[in-house]
Backbone:
């Protein structure tokens, strides 16, 4: 499962979905985490208002910046390689489509995540959708 919490102007919207990883990604948390970032990129425009100037998508993947820059590759796992390519292309596309927005993807370090209710809301939503399944 994957979930995103969209936070803006004091309101929180949480969206979650079931993810069916390919065989070569079963048991690999990175696949779900990258899918969550991809989902955030696909849907952030639905949750922003006209005054929005900055979009930050946080990820639990410590090497998210290296993954986007392709200094980390997944040579042995072709599905992760394809997902990495899709993520990079979509990120670049969203930046081009929204020239007045500062869009970034950043690692959500443990010290920021530990007592962060917004991070917890995404994780709880992902767990809940799995229990319902």
Residues:
């Amino acid at each position: 499962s994957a979930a995103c919490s969209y936070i803006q102007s004091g309101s929180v919207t949480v969206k979650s979905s079931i993810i069916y990883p390919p065989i070569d990604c079963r048991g690999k948390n990175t696949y779900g985490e990258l899918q969550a970032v991809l989902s955030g990129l696909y849907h952030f425009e639905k949750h922003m208002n006209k005054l929005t100037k900055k979009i930050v998508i946080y990820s639990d993947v410590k090497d998210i910046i290296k993954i986007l820059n392709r200094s980390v590759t997944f040579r042995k796992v072709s599905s992760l390689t394809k997902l990495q390519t899709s993520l990079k292309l979509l990120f670049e596309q969203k930046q081009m489509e929204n020239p007045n927005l500062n869009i970034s993807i950043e690692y959500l370090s443990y010290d920021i995540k530990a007592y962060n209710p917004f991070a917890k809301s995404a994780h709880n939503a992902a767990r809940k959708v799995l229990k319902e399944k």
Observations:
- The mean pLDDT is 90.
